[in-house]
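haha ok so turns out i had the wrong file open the whole time. this is the CORRECT one, sorry everyone. sequence first:
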Amino acid sequence: MTPFYVAGLWRYPVKTLAGERLPHATLTADGVQGDRLVQVYGPEGVRTSRRHSRLLGLRGTLGRLGQPLINGLPWESPEALALVKAAAGDDAWVDAYAGPDRFDVLPLLVATDGAVEAFGRDVRRLRPNLLIGGVDGLDEFDWPGATLEIGDAIVHLDSRRGRCPMTTVDPDTLARDPEVLRDIGRRFGGRLALNAAVERGGTIRVGDPVRLLRTH
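then structure:
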């Protein structure tokens, strides 16, 4: 059997904005260190690119000192706020929030290259934290309940992720294609990639071998 390996790593310091691809990452109980530290808000609560797709045209990264940036600007700066308002409305604002409910389901989202190939579109539409390479086809459908060992880190795979309209947005042009979500519904039962939690933390790197441990 072809060995599994870490094929990609991503972090999203500002929830719902485009994120950054990483060569290595530290996993903690809160997922990838530095993930989703800041959120966009409106009067209704958290505001996301599900309805305000232009937010995906902004990029969240971490600065050298670990501070979240929006298009390279400090997230709390007037210039960054102006970018967010232009994308999400004049009544939008940004704020730091470290509660566990900042994650849609669990702190990690794990995708596999076999399922991404079957999906046939840019992996960024799925917004994973980890991409596991060497996976045959849709084998990830049988992975819930299993664990991944990556160096010292252990990741528990909980369930398949139900997908939302964010998948319909082209990550480069921001054009919407509703057919993408309908296609996920038809071919994958509406679910792609895996909700996951960190059982034991550690630093992982692109290229690291991955061991899949099944419970059944």
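Residues 109 and 195 are 5 Å apart (CA to CA).
again sry for the mixup
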